[in-house]
Amino acid sequence: MRDEDTLSRRKFLTFVAAAGAAAALRPSRAAARPEAAAARPGPLLTRPIPSTGEKLPLVGLGSWITFNVGDDPAGRDSCAEVMRAFFAAGGRLIDSSPMYGSSQEVIGYGLRKLGNPSQLFSSDKVWISSGTRGPQQIEESRRHWGVPRFDLLEVHNLTGWEEHLPNLFAMKAAGKLRYVGVTTSEGRRHPEVEKIMRSQPIDFVQVSYNVLDRDVEERILPLARERRIGVICNRPFRRGELIRQVERAPLPPWAGEIDCASWAQVLLKFIVSHPAVVCAIPATTRVDHVRENVGASSGRMPDEAMRRRIAAHVEKL
Amino acid sequence: MSEWWTYHLSDFLLFSSRTYYRLFEIYNAAIWPAQIAAAGLGLAILALLRRPSAARGRAIAAILAACWLWVAIAFHADRYATINWAAVYFAWAFGLEAALLIGFGVVRIGPTFEPRADRASRAGLAIFLFALAAEPFATPLLGRGWKAVEIVGTAPDPTAIGTLGLLLIARGRGRGWLMVLPATWCAVSGFTLLAMKSSAAWIPPLAALLAIVLAASQTRARRRRRPSLATGATV
Q: How many contacts, defined by CB atoms under 8 Å, are there between A and B?
C-alpha cells in the first residue's frame, strides 16, 4: 500500500471514486444497499483448502440462531430466500450443527426448495459426548439436510473428540465424508485444539476470529498454515454486537482502498485476508446482508499494514 | 477469544427474539379457542376461592394440574422444543408439577386455598389476578401484537406466576414443594427474556421473589403463633 503522499494518479482517482461512493452510501448495516454488494469489483475470490486444493469462496453462511425458526412457514421461506441469494452471489459453504435447534431442518427445507444446488459445500458437526451415538446423530443430521453425504464434519466444541475423530476418519476413508475437522469457540480450549492439530490429520479447524478477538493469531493460525489445515472463522461480527458498535462511526475513507462499501465488508475482509483463513461464516436472516457479506469475497484485500490499520481503528471506537 | 466467564447471557440463547414471539403467534393460532377455555378456568378459580372448602381446594388444584400438563405437552414438547432442545426437560418439569398438584392437592389432603386478611394472602390474590388479567396485555403493550399474547393455562409464564399467587393463598402440607418448580421456571424465563433484552424480563423473577419472601414470612409468623409444647403459651 503506497503512502498517501506518493499516490499515483490512477490510485488517487480510484480512491476518490471509492470515497465518494462510500460517502454517498449510508454506513449503517441496517440500511445496506444491495447495489453496494451487487456492484462487485471483480470476480469472487477463493482460497484453496490446504489438504486438497479445492477452492472455496472466502465467505460462507452460518446458521447459528438465524436458521433456528422451528416450524414457522414464514421463517423457513425467509431462510430459503437467504440461501437463494447466497448461492446466486456465488456462495458455497453453509455451516450448521445439531446444537442449533431446527437450523439443520430449515437448511434442508431451503435446499429442497432451491432444487439442491450443486455448488453447496455442506459443513456440519457432531455434538454428542458419546462416541457410540455419534454415527446415529450424524445420520439424523444428514437426513435433516437431505444430502447424500456431508462435505465436512467437525467435532463441535471438541465434545468427545477422542471417540469421534476415529469414526470421522473412517467415514472419510470409506468415501462417506470428504473432510474432517474440530471446532471451538472458547479460548481456554486453544491448547487442546493445538494438541489435536499437531497429532491428528484433520482438514479443518473452526475457531472464533474477528477484528477484536484475535487470540488465534498467535498460535492457532500459524500452526494451521504449518500443518496445512484450513481455518473456518465463526463469530465474525460477535453475533452482531461488533456491527452495532462500529456503525456508530462513519465508514472511514480508506475502506474504499479495499473496495468495501460497508463496515460488514471491512470486518469480513479483515478476517479473510489472513492467509490461514479459508472461509468466514457470518450468519444472517436478511437477503441484502447475505449479498453484502458475500460481496466481501471480491475486490482488493487488505495487506498487513491495512489490517493493522483496521484493527487500530476499530479498537478506538 | 474471550474466556467462558466473559460470555454474555445472549451467547446461551439458541434463537432470536423474533422467532420466540413468532412461536407464540403460531401456537396461539393452532390452539384457538383454547385460550377462552383457559380464561374461563381462571375465572372458575376465582369463584371457587370465594367460599373455600376442602372440595373446592381440590378442584382448584385439579384445574392448576390440568393447566401445567397442557403447557407441558402443547407448548413445551410440541412447540418450544422445535427451537430449544432444553424444552423437552421443561416439559418433564411441568408434567412433574402437574403430578405434584394432583398428589398434594387432589389425592391427599394437601394445601387448602383460603384467602385471608393477611398481607401474603392479599398479595397472592393480586399476583394471581395480575397473571390472569394484566399479563395478557403485556405482549401488545410491548409492541408484539395480540397474536403472541400469553394466557394463564396455555403459556408457561402466566401459568407459573398465577400458580405462585394461588399458593400464597394456600395453607397446608406440600405448599412449599409446590412452589419450587413455578419459582424455578420464573427464574429460567427471566434469564431467557433478559438474554433477548426484553423489557418484561423482570416480571417473572419479581413475581417469584415476592412469592418466596411472602411465603417464608407467612411460615415464620405461623410458627411464632403456634403454642409452645412445654408451657402451652403462644410463642
A: 62
Is A68–B14 a contact, with Cβ atoms under 8 angstroms apart? yes
| Residue A45 per-residue DSSP state | P
pLDDT tens, position by position, for chain B (235 residues)?
344 555 566 667 899 999 999 999 999 999 999 999 999 999 999 999 998 888 999 999 999 999 999 999 999 999 999 999 999 999 999 999 999 999 988 887 667 888 888 889 999 999 999 999 999 988 888 888 899 999 999 999 999 999 999 999 998 878 899 999 999 999 999 999 999 999 999 999 999 999 999 999 888 887 777 665 545 444 4
Q: Which of B1, B11, B192 should be substituted to probe chain A, the one whose Cβ sees the most A Cβ atoms within 10 Å?
A: B1
- Interior/surface letters A25-48, b for 16+ CB within 10 angstroms, e for the rest: bebebeebbeebbeebeeebbbbe
**Contact (CB<8Å) B23/A101:** no
Helices (H), A89-176: 103-113, 134-145, 161-173
Residues of chain A contacting residue B4, judged by C-beta atoms under 8 Å apart: 186, 188
- Assign A129 to helix, strand or coil: coil
Contact A102 B85 (CB under 8 A): no
**B25 to chain A: closest CA residue:** A72
Best of A68, A186, A194, A231 to disrupt the B interface (most B CBs within 10 Å) is A68
Question: How many angstroms separate the CA atoms of A180 and A172, rounded?
Answer: 8
Helix or strand run (H / E) with residue A124 = strand A121-126
Count CA atoms within 13 Å of residue A17 on its CB side. 9
Antiparallel, parallel or unpaired: β B112-113 and B170-171: antiparallel
Residues of B in contact with A101 (CB under 8 A): 14-15, 82-85
Which H helix or E strand runs over A204? strand A204-208
CB A298 within 8 A of CB A44: yes
Q: Which residue has the cell 476415529?
A: A166
Q: What part of A 5-34 touches B (C-beta under 8 Å)? A: none
- Which residues does chain B have within 8 Å of residue A186's beta carbon, measured at their own beta carbons? 1, 3-4
**How far apart, in whole angstroms, are the C-alpha atoms of residue A33 and residue B143?**
27
